[in-house]
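Late entry, evening session. Most of the bench is empty. Finally got around to the prediction I had been postponing all week. Sequence below, unchanged from the version circulated by S.P.
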Amino acid sequence: MKVIVSISLLVGLTHVNAWSSNYIPSLKNRWSIPTTTPHPPSSSKQKAIAVPLEVQSLVDEDDTAWVQNLDYQGFTNEVNALGKQLLQETGPADVQHLQKIVSWRNVAALIGVATMWMTPNPLTIAALSTWTYASWTMIAHHTCHGGYNRVNAGKFNSRGFALGTLQRRVQDWCDWMAPEAWNVEHNRLHHYHLGEAKDPDLVQRNLDFLRDMKNIPMFVKYMIVGLLMPIWKWSYYAPNTYKELQLIDYKKQNGGKLPPGYDPTQALTVSHLLAPQDDAQRAAREIVKPIDFFTKVVGPFFLTRFVLLPLPLLAIPGVGATFYGHAVMNLILADMASNVHGFITIVTNHAGNDVYTFDDQVKPKTGAFYVRQVVGSVNYATGTDVIDFAHGWLNYQIEHHVWPDLSMLQYQRGAPRLKAICEKYGVPYVQESVWTRLRKTVDIMVGKTSMKRFPTEYEPAADKAGKSGVTWKSTNGAIDEE
């Protein structure tokens, strides 16, 4: 009976997400990238170019002053030099540090699995939640970016970690998202289109449906965000990452064409797959087949974590069914807790009324690229392994976006030095409590505030990506493997 109740809880949460997504018809993304790159104004007194109101935070003279006066070349030289030094310093100490974090994760997993038979309790839930959270945010995240490709870290290499077979996925990193899909969505699109229209994780745009609910009280919007927090990974992130992977195959098979009425920038959710409400959502089902999503993407994690893992408990005479029910409930509550933990430390990395959006593309490893990674990201409290573990190493988001393929240890070492460089050149470096960032992110989600628009017309023309846009050779961390 408790197993049935647990499954019913998951289904019920799906309906909550579907209600919030379909309360009003889904809106087309109105943010389009200009076909031509604007040139710097002839006078600093000229206003910035016009942008759509829904993504515009007025750019005044105070906001543009630091950009106009920025020594892009000097900033680029110092950031490049520091990045190269951190790469050169990567060695055995980084492997030992990784092993330390893995051991902390393993202890949490051991405690959680050993006690999951008990009546649902905070210790078991916290341990199981930490197991899932640490496996993704610290171990898989930095491994998939290639942070340990330059050292002998065993299986923790981006070229094979969790890839290729179901066995590798289960052994290395099994979560709601498919690793191959996450590599494309995160390593490629998010990192090299941060804050742009092509960024699949652009919170302000993805929450249009909530921001545009004009006839409901603000407190109801906050409640909707609260309901989304425990389920966001499987209800939104898993289908949206898989969509980006499937888009590549669909374009190859159809000569680059997309289904009529399909909007590739619209986030895909479970509710869209189960109950599409408009032509764009129905067209999305041609890109992502619901049966493929449920069997290939979320199915393996659901089966191994919530069915097979506690299954041996059923063999215990007399109390097996009770213990199994306890375990399933502990696992479900832990997954919800892990989702909340991830929401607080992940979703908040690139949102707030002090974080910038961008209306064109720039080349990687250029001054404009580095500046965008800094002002389009935020850090939290940093400094020790305990603090950093609690934040999933997402408290070094600025450094991670400037240099995506470093180890966790090198982010610790490089953060104060990059911050000093930013202070030297007047580049805003935002570092605040994660709770402050949560408040600012939720304010963006509900439409109380909006993100800033970066004056891209002041960026060096040589740094612009042009009509060809950004290209890459692999998904193994850096945009080009070196």
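Two things to note before I forget:
The beta strands are 356-357, 452-453.
The first strand starts at residue 356 and ends at 357.
Will write this up properly tomorrow.
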